[in-house]
Design a protein that fits this description.
By secondary structure, the chain is an alpha+beta fold. It contains ten helices and six strands, in the order H-H-H-H-H-H-H-H-H-E-E-E-E-E-E-H. A hairpin with a 5-residue loop joins strand 5 and strand 6. The two termini are 17 Å apart. The relative contact order is 0.10.
């Protein structure tokens, strides 16, 4: 997909999430909606927090698309890095978690998470917009653009902080109102709740690692340990699956950035990057080189 097409796609998805957030916030004349949002408002539900998070991410993605066209890659390093951090540690794991946890509980016993009475309040299309389409959008984002994952310690720490913040919010609402955000929590003992929250975090960690593997499968290694036997900061590797060459540039903390460049064939028959200098870039700035690499035979 070209840069222009990707920009249009990001704007479309951003508009969709803005519409959903606006539509849900309009309670209208239905007296049942305020009761659903009682004791904590709509933001007590992870589903609605995720919709806001997705709108934020695609807003940043659109901003990065526009700035890249206007200023070039070197002037938007912070925006690109923030886009990648937001997607890898929060937007992808949380959207996948909401999709999987909701439908697992819904198919087991919908009264635990989405009582049948809500069907008369929220139309079917809105239920799928909140709980189904969120995952395909996130998977499409993985396929369309590479995202540089942070070190696992940093990524999982940010995910843990977000998880702890939401669990604290749920417990605070219960302590203040005596009601649980989701009916499933009322069925569990204190030990069961602790186990449930712990397993939920482990589940989200698995989703995070799956997203990292998926990104690696599509785009190759963009942040991986440096071989201690490697004395130089440069190392060439040819990916037979993506048909491109990339150079590993040593950055810091014993890691190197794998960035792609146009390739050429030397007199010895080996593939070499045509311009090593084009590979010196900050994390997350390799989209153009990757797209060129994928399009070359």
């Amino acid at each position: 997909m070209t840069r222009t097409s990707t920009c249009i796609y990001h704007f479309f998805v951003l508009s969709w999430y803005i519409f959903l957030n606006f539509y849900i916030s309009q309670q209208g004349e239905d007296p049942r909606k305020p009761k659903v949002f009682l004791n904590g408002g709509q933001w007590k539900y992870l589903t609605f927090l995720n919709l806001l998070l997705q709108a934020l991410f695609y807003g940043v993605a659109c901003l990065e698309d526009v700035l890249k066209r206007a200023k070039g890659k070197k002037d938007i390093k912070f925006v690109t890095a923030f886009r990648d951090l937001l997607f890898t540690t929060l937007a992808f794991p949380i959207s996948a978690f909401v999709f999987l946890s909701f439908w697992i509980l819904f198919l087991y016993d919908r009264e635990l998470v989405y009582p049948k009475a809500l069907d008369g309040i929220f139309p079917v299309w809105l239920n799928h917009a909140m709980h189904t389409s969120i995952l395909p959008f996130s998977l499409a984002e993985v396929i369309l653009r590479p995202h540089c994952y942070p070190l696992k310690k940093k990524g999982l720490t940010l995910l843990a902080v977000a998880s702890l913040a939401y669990v604290s919010r749920v417990l605070w609402i219960y302590s203040e109102t005596g009601t649980w955000v989701y009916p499933v929590f009322a069925k569990l003992s204190p030990v069961g709740l602790a186990a449930f929250f712990s397993l939920s975090y482990i589940f989200s960690v698995g989703i995070y690692l799956f997203g990292e593997k998926l990104n690696h499968w599509k785009w190759g290694n963009m942040n991986m340990p440096l071989d201690p036997n490697e004395q130089t900061g440069w190392h060439q590797h040819v990916d037979p699956h993506l048909h491109h060459a990339y150079v590993n540039v040593h950055v810091n903390d014993g890691h190197y950035l794998s960035c792609l460049a146009e390739k050429g064939v030397g007199n010895d028959g080996h593939i070499y990057p045509l311009s090593a200098s084009s590979c010196v870039m900050s994390v997350g700035e390799g989209e153009e080189e990757i797209e060129k690499g994928n399009n070359k035979e």
